[in-house]
Design brief:
The complex is a heterodimer of chains A (349) and B (316).
Chain A lengths: L17 E12 L2 E12 L3 E5 L6 H9 L7 E8 L11 H7 L4 E4 L3 H4 L6 H11 L6 H14 L5 H5 L8 H13 L5 E5 L7 H18 L2 E6 L2 H7 L2 E6 L2 E7 H6 L4 H10 L47 E4 L2 E3 L22
Parallel strand pairs in A: 3-7, 3-8, 5-6, 6-7
Antiparallel strand pairs in A: 1-2, 1-4, 8-9, 9-11, 10-11
Helix pairs in contact in A: 4-5, 4-7, 5-7, 7-8
Chain B lengths: L1 H28 L4 H6 L5 H10 L6 H13 L13 H36 L4 H15 L2 H15 L15 H35 L2 H9 L3 H38 L5 H10 L3 H29 L1 H4 L4
The chains are: A alpha/beta (349), B mainly alpha (316).
Chain lengths: 349, 316
Amino acid sequence: MSAAGTRARGRGRGDAGDVLVVQGLDVTVREQMLVEDVTFTVRSGERVGLIGESGSGKSLTALALMGLLPEGLTATGSVRVDGVRHDLVGADERAMSRVRGRDIAMVFQEPMTALNPTMRVGDQVAEAMLIHRTRPNRKAAHSAAVELLEQVGLPDPPDTARAYPHQLSGGQRQRVVLALALANDPALLVCDEPTTALDVTVQAFVLDLIVQGVLDRRAAMVFITHDLAVVATVCERVMVMYGGRIVEAGPVQAVFTRPRHRYTQGLLGASDLAVVDDRGRLATIPGSVPAAGRFPAGCVFRNRCAHATALCETRPPWTATGNDAGFACHHPADAADAAPTSASEGRQR
Amino acid sequence: MILRLLQRLAILLISLAVSSVIVFAFMAVLPGDPARVALGVNATDSSVAEMRREFGLDRSPVAQYLSWVTGLVTLDPGNSYVSSTAIGPQLSDRLQVTLWLVVAAMALAVVVAIPVGTVMAVRHRQVSGLALSAVSQLGVAIPAFLAGILLITVFAVNLGWLPANGWTPPADDPVMFLKQLVLPVLSLGLVQAAVLTRYVRSAVLDVLREDYLRTARAKGLTPMRALVRHGLRNAAVPVVTVLGLQLATLLIGAVVVERVFVIPGLGSLLLDSVSQRDLIMVQDVVMILVVAVLVVNFVVDLLYLLIDPRLRVGAR
């Protein structure tokens, strides 16, 4: 944390320190646990991936960070962001509205509906700066908006600024959303599957823009996706989510080459297009993700896991394998050359 | 944009032409000779024939139609069959009275419905929102004339705060004009407000679920400011549609309320003319109502273009 009350902004941002500290984050709806005991830290300038199948709680975690959970869902636990003195969990709307778009910004999954259809895109980008008064007046905000549109590679930025969303393609709209999110040089950018809805041909381009935008601002990033290849190119560290819990975390290289949790192993196996069974079919994880609240007690993955035993009916403890790295599995892969599973005293909670 | 405007204008003109033919034909096929009706059962054939000549009723239907339309377009619709007085001044006087009533009632409905409907949508899970919903549901169920009678009973008869009926032109006595306007406007306007409130509520509820409202909050707007700045304009499209329909309903509905409050508007003129068999007057009043409804629809179309750029600006 930097000194209380001072905001480390833009290029003056230091390399040390934690930008985001999440501790024991739960998201519940009517007694039902949707996200359970999520704990992680994102350091300054770090790009962290959050992966898992649909329904694993990735998006809810992101929305909980932003304080934008749908009506009826409640978050408990603690979310602290560098430069903000209060906890984001339980903060009132007024306090959160000062944090959103300034300290944390978000890029959403669906660019086709993310922008107001009745407002020119330049005005929508400029508004982000006017709300937080990071530009002195309307004119300055507008020219800054044009500049941002140029940074995200939109053709003829002054003209694009005057366009309405329906005049732009999905990829172009997502670039507008990115420009909007980066407008106030946030300390943390949360991306919720920003390229999933896009044409494959523009995915790589938009990804580059996101990474470049984050690097330019020395911002940290939480990047949600189910595309492992994207995580490998964009992120330094990865967290694997299943059943509303983080089941494994670590450097991308280590997790992807030597997965410990059986779910991570299955996920990697399912995405390897070179591996086929004797009938020529790609590997899959048996079964499907249960509906929210239908996950088994103990290890949430045990009903789909080939290695599950009676032991898995108790919740597996977190086994730390390094700084910010570890897994929660009773029967991890490669147990022989890994740290002993019983050594759970280094659990990162 | 220009093309769309011209297109809408063409639709308006064609509808006007077609509806004028329908109104004329409808009156023409009604049994009974207007001249004989006007002169009474004891009139001689020669006096009837003379009157038919005088009013041009002996001409072909096409010629009659053309002279009627020409009269309306040049704002000189000729004389009444019954009273032989000029129709034009009567129509314009009565139209002004009805317009005061309808415009004031519509304004009241809008001023009440937009904030109340928005609050109902925002608080749709809370007791206050549900209570407002129940009240508006009750309002929808009450017809305007019944509301009028209730209002007269309470505010004019029991409390004596306001006159029960009558009409004073604003130029003669502005205070009396306003006093007499209150009850009829309330009885017309509150019922419409109740209906409109429900449409505003559902339009705002739809908008509240939109992704762009979440984007607006992610930018740093509070939920209420996000709704006002990004939601209301988007919610306006369905609401404007209903407003247009309501304005048309009000023009027709004013007939009854004018009767209850003894107001000399277009509706009273229509009923009087029907009872006096003044067919040309009936025809003109009906045509004015038709023109008003068509013009309202035209304006609604223009408002769509103004509100929603997707209808106005094509792809680049």
